[in-house]
């Protein structure tokens, strides 16, 4: 019998050390009813009923768990997600017909002869965030610094909601506050901060932010002028200060507008050292996470496009093995736990990411398209253990 999950039991189920197969459905969905028996057949053939120790099957009622489904990026029904403890969501697809055959084929990529599940389990031992997830999040760091205006606007909107709630005599806890207080999220952000803060002085400076850009920009190129990144840091510090003072006017007074980005020609930052401390970095990244959560599914699932394009160095719409390994090597050289002169460390990194490429390349074409990239690297949001509050 399939186990039904809700907001209270979902995250615990995903801590399973194999693959958690989750079907999202709704009682009013005709196709959901049509594939129901076929999904149960797949569970009987590949799940615990079959004696498997690697696969478990679950289902979530969309009608009763809309916030959970929104958080997990479910915008079509019936949809199936595969999860592992180390990587979060590693696959997703909608069901139409022959659900049992489709699920069996997709599961074979992980528990069949390829042995990809063993690789995914090994990622848990590398760090709090896997290397693949780390690459995505490093791109997110650069985006966060560039998106300060949009983050400030979202924060102002949150304050307006709180004010409206107060005027009605009710209390509303801001999502940003909930996220900042979540210990699991803070652990993940701590890992990310440690990677960026290469000299371990407890702050991020322009040189370190430039290193992030060098690691993830690829052929598209990013400015090498540290003044550009000093200017981005300045705007981030301004945002954090405005947040602390709860004065949205401070942002507009300093000229930080929605969508505003800094380029080399527009950088007017004064020649002085600007840094961002750990707690301020957390606040900035939570702001970026809120933007990603609010935009998920609204633009055709393009939220991971910046990370994809940074690896697609020839801009042909796919990532080749050479491009993929090159991107991972850039991270190792510029930001890795191994120093640039430690060739053995980066070589080991390359060997492991070669296996990761095989996991990404679902159709075995030798290249990874955006759909394949999203299927595994979208993962569970950083806020996976926090209930949606609005």
Verbal overview:
The protein folds into three domains: 3-125, Glutaredoxin, CATH 3.40.30.10; 133-295, no CATH class; 305-377, EF-hand (Recoverin, domain 1). The strands form three sheets. The protein has a five-stranded mixed β-sheet with strand order 1-3-2-4-5. A two-stranded antiparallel ribbon has the order 6-7. A two-stranded antiparallel ribbon has the order 8-9. Helix content is 53%, strand content 10%. The two termini are 33 Å apart. It has 390 residues and is of the alpha/beta class.
What is the N-to-C order of secondary-structure elements (H for helix, E for strand)? EHEHEHEEHHHHHHEHHHEHHEHHEH
Number of domains: 3
Average pLDDT reading: 74
C-alpha end-to-end distance:
33 Å
Strand order of the largest sheet: 1-3-2-4-5
Kindly report the oligomeric state of this protein: single chain
Percentage of residues in strands: 5-15%
Shape: globular
Derived from helix and strand composition plus strand pairing, the structural class reads alpha/beta
Radius of gyration: 22 Å
Major β-sheet annotation: 5 strands, mixed
- The low-confidence parts are 124-129, 247-271, 296-301, 337-344, 379-390
How many alpha or pi helices?
Answer: 17
The beta-strand count equals: 9
Helicity range of the residues?
40-55%
Protein name: Thioredoxin-like protein
Keywords: Calcium
GO molecular function: calcium ion binding
InterPro entries: EF-hand-dom_pair (IPR011992), EF_Hand_1_Ca_BS (IPR018247), EF_hand_dom (IPR002048), Thioredoxin-like_sf (IPR036249), Thioredoxin_domain (IPR013766)
């Amino acid at each position: 019998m399939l186990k039904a999950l809700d907001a209270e039991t979902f995250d615990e189920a995903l801590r399973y050390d194999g693959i958690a197969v989750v079907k999202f459905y709704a009682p009013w969905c005709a196709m959901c009813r049509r594939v129901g028996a076929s999904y149960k057949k797949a569970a009987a053939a590949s799940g615990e009923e079959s004696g498997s120790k690697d696969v478990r099957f679950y289902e979530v009622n969309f009608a009763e768990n809309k916030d959970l489904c929104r958080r997990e990026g479910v915008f079509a029904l019936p949809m199936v997600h595969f999860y592992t403890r180390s990587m979060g969501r590693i696959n997703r697809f909608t069901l139409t017909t022959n659900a049992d055959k489709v699920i069996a084929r997709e599961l074979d990529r992980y528990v069949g002869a390829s042995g990809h599940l063993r690789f995914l389990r090994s990622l848990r031992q590398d760090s709090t965030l896997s290397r693949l997830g780390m690459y995505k999040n490093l791109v997110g760091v650069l985006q966060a610094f560039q998106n300060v205006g949009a983050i400030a606007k979202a924060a102002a909107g949150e304050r307006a909601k709180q004010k409206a709630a107060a005027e009605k005599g009710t209390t509303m806890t801001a999502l940003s506050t909930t996220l900042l207080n979540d210990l699991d999220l803070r652990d993940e952000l701590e890992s990310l901060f440690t990677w960026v803060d290469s000299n371990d002085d407890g702050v991020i400076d322009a040189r370190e932010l430039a290193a992030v850009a060098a690691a993830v920009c690829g052929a598209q190129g990013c400015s090498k002028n540290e003044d550009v990144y000093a200017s981005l840091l300045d705007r981030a510090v301004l945002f954090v200060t405005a947040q602390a003072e709860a004065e949205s006017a401070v942002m507009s007074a300093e000229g930080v507008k929605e969508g505003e980005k800094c380029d080399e020609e527009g950088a007017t930052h004064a020649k002085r050292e600007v840094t961002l401390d750990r707690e301020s970095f957390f606040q900035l990244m939570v702001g970026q996470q809120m933007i990603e959560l609010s935009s998920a599914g609204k633009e055709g699932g393009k939220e991971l496009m910046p990370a994809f394009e940074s690896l697609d160095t020839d801009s042909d719409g796919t990532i080749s093995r050479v491009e993929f390994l090159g991107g991972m090597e850039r991270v190792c050289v510029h930001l890795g736990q191994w120093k640039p002169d430690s060739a053995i460390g980066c070589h080991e990194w390359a060997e492991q990411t070669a296996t990761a490429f095989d996991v990404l390349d679902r159709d075995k074409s030798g290249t990874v398209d955006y759909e394949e990239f999203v299927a595994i690297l979208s993962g569970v949001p950083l806020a996976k253990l926090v209930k949606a509050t609005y």
